[in-house]
Structure formats: structure tokens, C-alpha cells
């Protein structure tokens, strides 16, 4: 009987969903037609036609992308309101859709009219009688889950002849028990009231979202980005939304959420990719990372940017009429200081020759020379190759990688780090740089570590962009120093923000003037070093922000220093704080185990309630090193991979990663019968395809989740760095179903 009722309800929802898909197809065709018309207008050739074409094609393409992305679970919610408000059902979906009469068929989940879907509760039903979540696979309705919010209004409505049966076991539990795959999914159908508040907070100042593990901070922040884009598309699409997360693996884990919500106009960057054109994926060892992340590096880098280029000339001599002119160290030092006081180094390039000529002219004492005059003197010098070569070699246009490579020289580093870094700290820096690249010449950016990127960015800002030359001078480096240069007009973030809409976020330009965004969203913010805060701060000077984090999960050892850098990055902006209190990831058994660990080692953890019980507590196993450890790990991994349908993470100390990878490659049963599980060979590179089993270090697991977690040698993970206990706490909070530790 109950099954029949469910079938009947599913069938009736299917009829509505079918109508929606039909309408969607029509809307898609109309958009394509618009695109086609746009193209043929462009072919007319006149300028007006082209502008019109761009606008139309863009709008149409955007609409098509939106519709394509919407294909998964397009309709997910239904509200039945009290008679007084609306006797007709209201449907909520990933995008809004109207029928041919322009009446609303589907309400966009971000629209004000959809807010009640998330905010109504049994305590405060807000005229909602029944909230229904539709579970769909593509266009097929496979189930419905109802919640009765107002029993009194329900019996009134039924008495008045409306048929509102309550079926299912609750959408949230069904959603939380699903097997995990390699990407994060959107939660539009089951956003909880406290999460909804953070998602819909106004796009002003800083919205800060805190909460313990698994409370939905990441997924809420992503839905917030979609919400902001929906509500102020012009501002955020033209100004750009920057989303920063801890690692490349994490960015790939979350990258599908926004497109599935119909949004593609965002820049998703890991901390190693924040600077345009740079992509670092390797971490330095913890002791080195601590030095590179410290705010003190800003001073070291600033000094480096002011140093004379190593190997550049220190003297220039020339005869002119009766005078012997010598620019010696002292004279050049004065010119250098004068130029440096005028602003960023590269910005001074157009002034270099004039400043040198000033200093030289002062040495012209002879009568003949004086009589011929300054103008003649300048003309003659500027036509001499030796002068121009000198000027260019003495004040060359510099890029950040080059100056960073200077710091690989111990003497140079000692000079710029004096009084700021200890000898031991300098040794650590040198060790990390010398082991990865040459000590001379320009440095490639390909061997940079994630911790080098903020140093590079700091240098970009200390040096300034090399002024752009006019097109006809582009190939002539000397054009830079021959006085007037046509500096390309660059748009600031504010210009872009208010540029005519219809143009998406501009592509990377590598120019610091184009670094700014309209919104900056930082995930796992507790891990940002002071230098990383400086880097992201520069991208959000005029932006609104969303900042997400949990201090107990922090792997930065000096929290006060990071807090100060964060405050400086957000200076003058008002903060609105939201706190999430329910853990949706871990089973209660697993989270209790992790929370007990946090208490035992003295972490000041924010402890959420875990709402789902599985009846399976974590397992602790002891194994001796060597063959025993491998055999035990193998047994546990194979067992867990068979028990869970989704992903499995083997978390190991960094020093054991290659060892465990080698084991994995040699275990045939993983390939054969553990339900399609195969071993990933290197966790630094995310495995291809849909491998279910991966090997990760503790730091790699930040922000991720797996159905099963096996922790190999937790004590070693704990001892790996000064913040190893926080890292192990993170590791223990990654599993949705099964957790085993092997000590
Ligand atoms: N309202 C919800 N409905 C369904 N699933 C949810 C909901 N909120 C959170 N989740 C799920 O809970 C899990 C944890 O979410 P998320 O990763 O965003 O948490 P987090 O707070 O960022 O975690 P951590 O700080 O531990 O990395 C995800 O699988 C997410 O989809």
C-alpha cells in the first residue's frame, strides 16, 4: 500500500518534470536560434553588426551553458503552501523557467521566492504545509521525500479536498548516506536553515563562516558564490569571482559544484595558482614553509627588489668636449636612491636615462661643453650605443622570477636578510632553492613551491609592471629608457566592475593592475600563512569577501601572526560572522573518536553535532614495521574497499608516501575484485579516471572526504610538523563510513 502511494506520487511528479524538460528544450532552441541570428548579422560586416553579434552570441552561449549544466536534477523541490497563500504547488529548481505565457514554472533556488523552501521549519512553518524533495536521475524522478511542517494546516487542506500525502524518510538523511565519489556535489535540495542564512548574506564587507569539520563550510561557500552571481550578475561577472582553496586536488574536488548550479564565470585557484600564469603544486618541508610564510619575508623581498642587479656595471665613463665624465659608485648610488624614492622600480624605466643625464651634465664644466648646451649633450648621449647599453644594463627591466633567483646566492641572501632572518633560516631557504634549480640567470617558474608563490607575488608588486610599449616599439628594449613611453591604459578592478555588462571576467594579463576581483572567497582560511594573506589581500582590495575556516584544523604554527596579516588584508571592511553547528560528513561514531582525540591532545576544537549513526565504530590496529605493516595495510584496504561503494583514502606520513604507493601497485586484488578500485600511483598527481583508492599525506586531505579512511602510522603524521596534531585531527574527520588506524 505504502509502495503504491510512493509510486503514485513519483508518477505525478514525473508528469510535471516532463513538462519542465519540454519547456527547457524549447528555451534551448530559442537560445540557439538567437545565436544563429547573431552570427548571420555579424557577417553583414559593418561595425554595428559586429557589436550586436558579440552581445547576442554571448547571451545565447551563456544561456545554453546554463541549460546544459542544469540537466542533472533540474527540478528538486516542491512547496505546498496554505490555501490563503497559494493552493497551487510551487516548484524550485537549479534555474528559473517560465512557460509560454510567461508564468513561472520553476523558481530559481536563489530567488527571494525560493528562500522559504530552505528557511521554513516545523517550529516556524511560514505558511508551508509540506516540503517535498524530488530525487532525480537526469530527467527521471526516482523518489520523493516529504516533510510535514504544519499539521494543523495539513488537516484543513485535506478537509478542503487537497491531496497532500507525506512519504519518504527525509531528504537530508538519504542525501548524507550516499556513496562518495571524486567530486563534491551541490546541496541545493537539502540546504539547512543555518546554512541558508550564510548563503544569502548580502555581498558587502566580509562574510566569515566558521564551524567544525564536515559542517558544510565549503559547500555553503560555493552556493554563496552562485547566489551572489545570481543577485548581482553585472558586478560579479565583470569584476570576477576568485575562489582560493588549499590544493589542486581540492580544486578538482569542488570544481563541478558551480557549473552544476549554472555558474561558470569564476576563477578557481589553489594557493599555488593565485598568481596569473604560475602553477605550483609542491609543498616545501614544514620547517622551510614556516620561514617562507612568515611576514618577515616581506621585508627581505622588499630589500631584494631594491638591490643592484648582480653583475650589472658599477661605473660609466665618457669624454664630451673638454670634460671627462665619470659616473662612479657614489654618483650612481645617488641616482639609484633618487629613482627608488619615486616609486616602483620598473615604473622608473622611462626616467632612467634622464636621471643619468642629469648627473652627467652636472660634471660638464668646460666652456665649450657648457656653450653647446644641455640639449645637444642629451641628443649626443642618447645616440651613443655605449650609453644606452650602460643604462639598460644598470637598470634593466626586471621580472619577479629573476629577482627571486638572485636570492639563491648565499651572499646576496645574507645581505637582504640581515637582521631579519637567522643564519639557520637562511640555510633552510638556500637548501630549498638550491635543490630545485640553478643558482644563476633567470629562473623558470616551473620549479616553484606553493610557498614560493607569495614571495614571487610580493616581488611583482615591489618591482611593478614593466611599462608597456607602443606597438611599433615592442621589439626594441631600448625604447623603454628613451624617455617618453606610451603606457597602455590598463583597467582597474573598479573600471571592470562597472564596465558595460555582457563581458565576462577578463582573461589573465599578468599585469598587477588586473589582479583585483569583485569577490574573493577563501576556503580553509585557517591555513593561510601571513605571506599568503598578503597575496590574496591584493586581489580583494575593493572586493567583498567570503572567508571559510576552522581554527582547530590549522597547520600554521603562529596563529597571531596570521591573524594580524588577515586583519591587514581586510582592513576597513565590516565582518559578518556565521557559525555552522552540525557535522554532515562523519558518522557520529567516527566524529566522537576524532573529537576525543582533539580533547586528548589539547586542541581547542569547535565540536559540531554529527547527526548520522552507522553503528560501526572506528578500528585501531597495531602492526610492526616492515612486512607486517604492509600485510596489515593490505588486508585493511582491501576489506574497506569491498565494504564501501565509494572512495577510499590511505593517509600516510609524507616520508612513507612512495613506499605505500609501491605496495599498492603490487596488490592485484585491488584491481580485480574490490569493486573497480585501483591504486593511484602518486598522490601529488590526482589519479586519472575513477580510481576509488588513493594515497595521500595528511596535508593532502584538507577539505576532502572519503567513504573509507585508513590512517597508516598516525603517530608519525602527528610528529611530522609543529602542527601535526591539528593535521591528524583533520585526517580523522575525513571518513563518512569507515575509519581504521594502523599504529
Ligand atoms: N545541507 C546539506 N545537505 C546535504 N549534504 C550536506 C549538507 N551540508 C553539508 N553536506 C555535506 O557534508 C559534507 C561536508 O561538507 P563540507 O566539505 O562543505 O564541510 P566543511 O565544513 O568544509 O568540512 P571541513 O572543514 O572538515 O573540510 C559534504 O559531503 C557536503 O556535501
UniProtKB/TrEMBL annotation:
This is AAA family ATPase. Gene3D superfamilies: P-loop containing nucleotide triphosphate hydrolases. It comes from the Bacteria. GO terms for biological process: recombinational repair. Pfam families: UvrD-helicase. The keyword Transmembrane does not apply. InterPro entries: DNA_helicase_UvrD/REP, P-loop_NTPase, UvrD-like_ATP-bd. The lineage of its organism: Bacteria, Bacillati, Actinomycetota, Actinomycetes, Propionibacteriales. One of its GO terms (cellular component) is cytosol. Residues 190-587 form the UvrD-like helicase ATP-binding domain. Keywords: ATP-binding, Helicase, Hydrolase, Nucleotide-binding. It comes from Nocardioides antri. The keyword ATP-binding applies. ATP binds at residues 211-218. GO terms for molecular function: 3'-5' DNA helicase activity; ATP binding; DNA binding; hydrolase activity.
Amino acid at each position: 500500500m505504502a509502495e503504491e502511494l510512493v509510486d503514485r506520487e513519483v508518477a505525478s511528479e514525473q508528469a510535471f518534470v516532463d513538462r519542465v524538460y519540454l519547456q527547457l528544450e524549447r528555451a534551448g532552441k530559442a537560445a540557439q536560434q538567437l545565436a544563429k541570428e547573431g552570427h548571420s548579422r555579424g557577417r553583414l560586416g559593418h561595425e554595428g553588426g559586429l557589436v550586436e553579434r558579440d552581445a547576442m552570441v554571448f547571451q545565447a552561449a551563456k544561456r545554453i551553458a546554463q541549460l546544459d549544466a542544469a540537466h542533472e536534477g533540474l527540478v528538486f523541490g516542491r512547496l505546498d503552501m496554505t490555501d490563503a497563500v497559494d493552493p497551487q504547488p510551487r516548484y524550485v529548481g537549479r534555474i528559473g523557467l517560465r512557460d509560454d505565457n510567461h508564468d513561472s514554472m520553476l523558481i530559481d533556488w536563489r530567488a527571494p521566492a525560493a528562500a522559504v523552501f530552505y528557511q521554513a521549519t516545523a517550529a516556524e512553518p511560514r505558511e508551508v504545509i509540506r516540503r517535498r524533495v524530488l530525487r532525480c536521475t537526469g530527467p527521471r524522478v526516482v523518489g520523493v521525500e516529504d516533510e510535514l511542517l504544519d499539521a494543523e494546516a495539513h488537516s484543513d487542506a485535506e478537509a478542503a479536498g487537497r491531496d497532500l500525502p507525506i512519504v519518504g524518510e527525509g531528504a537530508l538523511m538519504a542525501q548524507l548516506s550516499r556513496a562518495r565519489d571524486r567530486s563534491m556535489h551541490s546541496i541545493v535540495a537539502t540546504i539547512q536553515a543555518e546554512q541558508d542564512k550564510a548563503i544569502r548574506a548580502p555581498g558587502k564587507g566580509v562574510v566569515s563562516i566558521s564551524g567544525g569539520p564536515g559542517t558544510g563550510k565549503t559547500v555553503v561557500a560555493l552556493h554563496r558564490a552562485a547566489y551572489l552571481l545570481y543577485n548581482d550578475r553585472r558586478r560579479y561577472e565583470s569584476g570576477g569571482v576568485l575562489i582560493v582553496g588549499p590544493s589542486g586536488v581540492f580544486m578538482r574536488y569542488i570544481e563541478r559544484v558551480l557549473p552544476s548550479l549554472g555558474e561558470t564565470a569564476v576563477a578557481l585557484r589553489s594557493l599555488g595558482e593565485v598568481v596569473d600564469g604560475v602553477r605550483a603544486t609542491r609543498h616545501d618541508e614544514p620547517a622551510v614553509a614556516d620561514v617562507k610564510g612568515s611576514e618577515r619575508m616581506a621585508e627581505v623581498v622588499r630589500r631584494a627588489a631594491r638591490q643592484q642587479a648582480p653583475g650589472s656595471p658599477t661605473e660609466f665613463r665618457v669624454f664630451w668636449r673638454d670634460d671627462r665624465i665619470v659616473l662612479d659608485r657614489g654618483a650612481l648610488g645617488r641616482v639609484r636612491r633618487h629613482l627608488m624614492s619615486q616609486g616602483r622600480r620598473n615604473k622608473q624605466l622611462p626616467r632612467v636615462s634622464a636621471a643619468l643625464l642629469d648627473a652627467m651634465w652636472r660634471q660638464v664644466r668646460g666652456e665649450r661643453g657648457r656653450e653647446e648646451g644641455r640639449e645637444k649633450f642629451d641628443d649626443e648621449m642618447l645616440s651613443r650605443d655605449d650609453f644606452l647599453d650602460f643604462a639598460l644594463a644598470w637598470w634593466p627591466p626586471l621580472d619577479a622570477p629573476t629577482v627571486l633567483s638572485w636570492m639563491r646566492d648565499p651572499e646576496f641572501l645574507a645581505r637582504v636578510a640581515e637582521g631579519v632572518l637567522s643564519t639557520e633560516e637562511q640555510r633552510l631557504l638556500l637548501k630549498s632553492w638550491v635543490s630545485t634549480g640553478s643558482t644563476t640567470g633567470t629562473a623558470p617558474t616551473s620549479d616553484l613551491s606553493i610557498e614560493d608563490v607569495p614571495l614571487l607575488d610580493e616581488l611583482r608588486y615591489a618591482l611593478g609592471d614593466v611599462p608597456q610599449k607602443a606597438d611599433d616599439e615592442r621589439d626594441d628594449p631600448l625604447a623603454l629608457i628613451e624617455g617618453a613611453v606610451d603606457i597602455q591604459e590598463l583597467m582597474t578592478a573598479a573600471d571592470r566592475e562597472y564596465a558595460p555588462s555582457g563581458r565576462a571576467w577578463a582573461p589573465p594579463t599578468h599585469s598587477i593592475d588586473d589582479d583585483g576581483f569583485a569577490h574573493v572567497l577563501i576556503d580553509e582560511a585557517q591555513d593561510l600563512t601571513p605571506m599568503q594573506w598578503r597575496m590574496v589581500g591584493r586581489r580583494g582590495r575593493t572586493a567583498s569577501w567570503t572567508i571559510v575556516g576552522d581554527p582547530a584544523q590549522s597547520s600554521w604554527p603562529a596563529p597571531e601572526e596570521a591573524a594580524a596579516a588577515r586583519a591587514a588584508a581586510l582592513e576597513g571592511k565590516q565582518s559578518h560572522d556565521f557559525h555552522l553547528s552540525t557535522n554532515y560528513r562523519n558518522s557520529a561514531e567516527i566524529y566522537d573518536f576524532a573529537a576525543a582525540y582533539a580533547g586528548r591532545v589539547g586542541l581547542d576544537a569547535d565540536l559540531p553535532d554529527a547527526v548520522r549513526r552507522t553503528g560501526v565504530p572506528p578500528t585501531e590496529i597495531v602492526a610492526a614495521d616492515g612486512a607486517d605493516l604492509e600485510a596489515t595495510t593490505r588486508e585493511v584496504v582491501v576489506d574497506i574497499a569491498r565494504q564501501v561503494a565509494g572512495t577510499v583514502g590511505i593517509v600516510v606520513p609524507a616520508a612513507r608516501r612512495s613506499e605505500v604507493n609501491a605496495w599498492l601497485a603490487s596488490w592485484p586484488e585491488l584491481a580485480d575484485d574490490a569493486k573497480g578500485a585501483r591504486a593511484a600511483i602518486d598522490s601529488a598527481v590526482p589519479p586519472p579516471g575513477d580510481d576509488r583508492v588513493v594515497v595521500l599525506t595528511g596535508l593532502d586531505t584538507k577539505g576532502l572526504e572519503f567513504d573509507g579512511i585508513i590512517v597508516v602510522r598516525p603517530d608519525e603524521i602527528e610528529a611530522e610538523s609543529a602542527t601535526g596534531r591539528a593535521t591528524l585531527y583533520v585526517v580523522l574527520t575525513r571518513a563518512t563510513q569507515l575509519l581504521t588506524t594502523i599504529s
